[in-house]
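Researcher: I'd like a candidate sequence for this fold, 319 residues long. If you have to choose between options at a position, lean toward the conservative one.
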């Protein structure tokens, strides 16, 4: 399965540039939105993608078009639809436009599928909004976004939703070892022949920030100080980013009646460019991991993850 369910956005759209992170809180952007034929196809697709019978292929979309083509505006509308439902004043105006455009069936589907969040039968999605890259791996960016999204939702208990990650169990293991041997605290890592970090304190900081290099160095350090004994992350209960999303989605569905998680990655093409252009990163492995992420987290009937990349070119054209 490939991430190229591509829908091109009408390049004649003249909406002003929209900052996605700010736009998801502005309901007037929904009310002002005039759907193009391409956008109507997207709405129809999303109505099917949230159904339990949908495939993981249906739950990954690349929204692409040139600058000013309206893709960011569409992304904002999708974000509010999935997070809040289709009952706001803005959506009332949008649905009225769809009905005038003889899209009554779609208008009804939006209203019946995306109920207001306060409705007992509503199945909202946790919105993970990402922009470009800025971290050392795609997986780290996804974990950072999930953690931030859960922190923003006051009615969600992050401890009930997010499992212990592989980074957190490594931090816990270090703290246990440092409690037994205080010499490990802020120790110079060069004494063990490790040069990527100056001290254990620097290493732990990056573990807390979900940096893959820190994870690799910690495992090397653990083996050296424990006379060849490897630290078994899975045995300690640590989850990688794919497992974390899978379990978080399951917990959201079972404990909070959510439909799942929606990842909306603005300037996703820039994240891929950063990946391919950085010789220190393993582009092939990261792309395979992302593919696995989409296929695995998009599979569950309930508690699945929707993945929407917003780019300026289609994946086939991004090199």
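Model: Candidate sequence:
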């Amino acid at each position: 399965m490939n991430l190229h369910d591509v829908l091109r956005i009408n390049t004649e759209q003249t909406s002003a540039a929209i900052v996605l992170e700010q736009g998801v809180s502005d309901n007037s952007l929904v009310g002002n939105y005039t759907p193009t034929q391409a956008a109507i196809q997207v709405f129809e697709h999303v109505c099917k993608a949230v159904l339990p019978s949908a495939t993981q292929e249906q739950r990954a979309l690349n929204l692409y078009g040139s600058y000013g083509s309206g893709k960011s505006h569409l992304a904002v509308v999708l974000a509010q639809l999935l997070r809040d439902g289709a009952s706001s004043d803005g959506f009332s105006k949008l649905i009225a436009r769809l009905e005038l455009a003889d899209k009554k069936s779609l208008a009804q589907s939006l209203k019946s599928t995306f109920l207001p969040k306060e409705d007992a039968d509503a199945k909202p999605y946790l919105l993970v909004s990402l922009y470009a890259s800025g971290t050392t791996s795609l997986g780290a960016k996804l974990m950072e976004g999930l953690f931030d999204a859960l922190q923003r939702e006051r009615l969600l208990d992050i401890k009930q939703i997010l499992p212990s990650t592989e980074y957190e169990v490594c931090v816990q293991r270090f703290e246990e070892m440092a409690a037994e041997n205080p010499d490990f605290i802020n120790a110079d890592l060069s004494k063990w022949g490790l040069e990527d970090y100056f001290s254990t304190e620097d290493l732990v900081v990056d573990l807390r920030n979900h940096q893959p290099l820190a994870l690799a160095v910690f495992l090397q350090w653990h083996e050296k100080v424990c006379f060849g004994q490897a630290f078994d992350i899975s045995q300690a209960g640590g989850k990688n980013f794919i497992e974390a999303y899978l379990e978080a989605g399951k917990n959201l569905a079972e404990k909070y009646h959510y439909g799942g998680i929606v990842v909306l990655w603005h300037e996703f093409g820039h994240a891929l460019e950063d990946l391919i252009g950085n010789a220190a990163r393993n582009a092939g492995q990261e792309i395979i991991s992302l593919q696995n992420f989409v296929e695995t987290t998009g599979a569950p009937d309930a508690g699945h993850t929707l993945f929407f990349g917003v780019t300026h070119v289609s994946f086939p054209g991004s090199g």
